[in-house]
Amino acid sequence: MIKDRGTKKWTSIMIPELITDLQHAFYEDANRTDNPIIDEYQQAEFDESICYAMEYNYPVEFTLWIKGYTEIVKGNVHFVDYIQKHFRLKQSNGDLAIVKMNDIIGVKVYE
Q: What is the C-alpha to C-alpha distance for residues 78 and 88, in angstroms, rounded to an integer?
C-alpha cells in the first residue's frame, strides 16, 4: 500500500506571494469577456453620436473592449482619421488619447 501524504506535500511550496499571484490571475481570467458583436445599426448610431458631439464640442465617453476587458475613456473628439481608423480625444487633463474604431462597444455623449 502506498502511503501518500495527500495535500500536505504541496503546502510547503504555497508561499503567500504565490497564493496572492494565483488568486489575482484567477480573478483576472474570471472577469474576461468575449468580444461583443456590433451590428451595422449600432455602428451607425455610434457614428451619429460622435458627429453630433464633434459639431457641438460635447464630451464623449467611449466604452472600449481591449483584449477581453472593458475600459472607459472620456474626452472631446478632436480628430477622426478614417485612413488609420481611429479617433483622437482631448481629455480633461489636456492629454491626447487615441481610440481605435474597432475597439468601440459603446458611445455616450454628455450635453
A: 5
